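User: Can you help me understand a structure? I only have the sequence.
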Amino acid sequence: MKTRVVYIGAESSVTPIGKSADDNFSAMAKGISAVRIRTEAGFHKQDLPLSAFEKKAYRLPFEELVMEAFDASLKGIDAHILESERTIVLISSTKGELAVSITHPFRSTLRHLTGKYLLKNEPVVISNACISGVAACNIAARYLTQGYFDHAVVIGCDVLSDFVIYGFQSLFAISQDVCKPFDKNRSGVVLGEGSAAVVLSVERNIFKEHPLELLGGAISNDANHISGPSRTGEGLFRSVRKTLDKHAVNPAEIGFISAHGTATLYNDEMESIAFSRLDMSDIPLNSFKGYIGHTLGAAGVLEIAYTMQSLRKQLLIRTHGFQETGTSGKISVISETAPASFSLSLKTASGFGGCNAALLIRKI
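Assistant: Let's start by predicting it. Here is the structure, written out as tokens:
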């Protein structure tokens, strides 16, 4: 069977700094961050930095955010693919719409999606901590390469709630200031909310704008701890190594790494060790978390959309909040936004329970 090329395009992004992938990326290129101090947002009414929609202006519930990202992506393709039994929709999220139902946080959204667009296949939910978005794209790519489907829409979405905020506070993992990924003065994560969508297809002509190529990657779990990452970066190392080997890619071919970069002490240290072990110390690397916060299950899809924008516009975005390297592993954190010439990017993600995922995106 001939190897099927998987194209990826029609990226969308809805966050507090913009309603499209282009809007978001342009804001980041200007150094604009959505992170603000929100009064009485935390436990015991503690003030916290968050990337959140304004409660009185543009704050959307989970289902509406999913729909907005989905609708925006459909504008970039031949939407008739939704009528096909060869199309599948995947949603990546950690919590869904807890405000609607604790026991069935995705039921309403799935019913709405299926009914509004007359989907022939029931959407699949991928909920695997903070690698959900990258994992969903990898799973979608496998569906396509193995011939189960011809098209896939991957939507990532998570919203803030007391449950999420208080949970991270209980771990003493939230920063009291703008997060500083990979910086020696980093003090924790800043949470965010948003949604994004990308379309995968084996048919290049369904895209209205020139697509990129998705090289589906690997998932690895080191099972180190319920919340703490491996001290050696073993899980991330394996997921990236398997991804490179699968596509016969040499690290020297990669022009940019979109890392997880949560700005917690242990995550950033773990990533630096893994990338050093992979001989990727000199590859430009960034984290988008300083602009939109950590959006949990949506983070992978959002950051894949921004990685695609970087490839399209040949522009590397600086790591907001970063000033001085504070990791033992040698990495090349992007400190200034600048044009660059590159055709291949690596996207990674790591999450609770020791899960890790990676994939590659190529400009064609």
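Now, to help you interpret it: Residues 75 and 361 are 22 Å apart (CA to CA). The radius of gyration is 19 Å. Let me know which part you'd like to focus on.
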